[in-house]
Amino acid sequence: MTELRTLQGRILTPAGWRRGRIGFDRHVRSIEDGDGSDDRIVLPGFIDLHVHGAAGVDLMQGFDVARTIARAHVRYGTTALLGTTMTAAEDDIVRALQGLAAAMAAPDPDAAQILGVHLEGPFISPHRLGAQPPLTVEATLESVQRLHALAPIRVLTLAPEIGRHTELIPALCALGIRVQIGHSAGTYEEGLAALRAGASGFTHLFNGMTGVDHYRPGIAAAALAHAEYAELIPDLQHVHPGAIRLALRAIPRLYAVTDATAATGMPDGEYALGSQRVHKCLGCVRLASGSLAGSALTMDQALRNLVEVGLDLADASHRVSAFPAQYLGLDDRGRLEPGARADLVVLDAQLRVVEVYVGGRGVDLG
C-alpha cells in the first residue's frame, strides 16, 4: 500500500488555483487551504498521446524498449503515454505491439504508465508521408482487429480519402478506438465526412495534411472549422507560434503531444525512427533530406512553450493533462481532486520539473 503523503504549494484544481496542501496515497485524498509557496507548483501529471521513442530507442524495435521509453519520459513529468507506431510491414508492427503489451502487463513503478497504442501508420496517404516510409496500405476491419488483439489501440490515424476508410470509421469507433485524421491529402469535404462518420481528432495538426487555402480548404481547415479535439506539436519548429494561436482560438480542446523520437533526451547525432535514420541537431530532428522527422520535445518543455506563446499556466496545464485525458475518456486522471489518481508533477517557479508521482509513488529523477 502506498503511504499517505502530503505536498505543499500552489495546487491547480478543477475549480482553479489553491494555495495549501494536497494529501494522497494512490489517489488524491484531500486538498486543504494553507501556506504554500509560489516556488512550488503542483499540477496533474502530463499525458502524451503520441510517443515514438526516447533515450536512444524507438518503439518499432520491439522487445523491452517500451519500458526504456516510459522511464525516459517520466523524468519530464509525463505520467501516462501512448506508444506510437510508424508505417511498416505488418510483421514489424506486430513485434512493436507485442513488446508494448509485455510492458503494459508488467508495469514499471519508475516509469510513465503505458495506456496503449497510437497506431499512426500504415493507413495513411502515400502523398503525405512526412517522415513515414512508403509502406502504406488500406485499412480493413480485420487487419485492425488483429493488431488490436495484441495491444489495445486507443488512437488510430488514417487518411479518410483512401479507399473505404471513411465508411470503416464507425466500426473502428465501435472497438473503442479514437479515429484521428492525419497524414492526409484529403479535401475539406473529405475531412468533414470523416468527422460526421465518427472521427474525433487530428494527428499533429497542420503537419502532414492539406492546409487552409481559402479557395481549396483542406484537412487543417476542416479541423479549424469543426474539431473539438486535435493534437499539436508545440516545439515551435513544427508549427509557427502564430498558427498555434490560431488553432487555440478555433479548437476548444487542442492538446499538446511531443511526437518524441529516439533522439529525445539524447545528444546531437543519428538515431532510428522506425526503419529510417534521423539526425538530431540543435534540438531539431530531421531526415537526411532535411524534412522534420518527429521531435526531441518533452512535455515539460511543451508546457513552457505554450506559456511562451501566451497561455496562462492553468490553460497550458489543461492542454498537457486534462484535455488528453478527456479525449481518451479517462475520468481518473488529468485533474487534482479527491478520488482522482495521484499522478502529480511539482514544478519550480521557472516551470522546471522537481518531483513526479505516478499513482502516488515518487519517481527517482536522479
TrEMBL record:
Its cofactor is a divalent metal cation. Zn(2+) binds at residues 120, 183, 204. Coiled coil: none annotated. Binds 1 divalent metal cation per subunit. It is an enzyme of class 3 (hydrolase). Residues 41-360 form the Amidohydrolase-related domain. One of its GO terms (biological process) is N-acetylglucosamine catabolic process. Its EC number is 3.5.1.25. Keywords: Carbohydrate metabolism, Hydrolase, Metal-binding. The active site is at 259 (proton donor/acceptor). GO terms for molecular function: metal ion binding; N-acetylglucosamine-6-phosphate deacetylase activity. Belongs to the metallo-dependent hydrolases superfamily. NagA family. This is N-acetylglucosamine-6-phosphate deacetylase. It comes from Lysobacter enzymogenes.
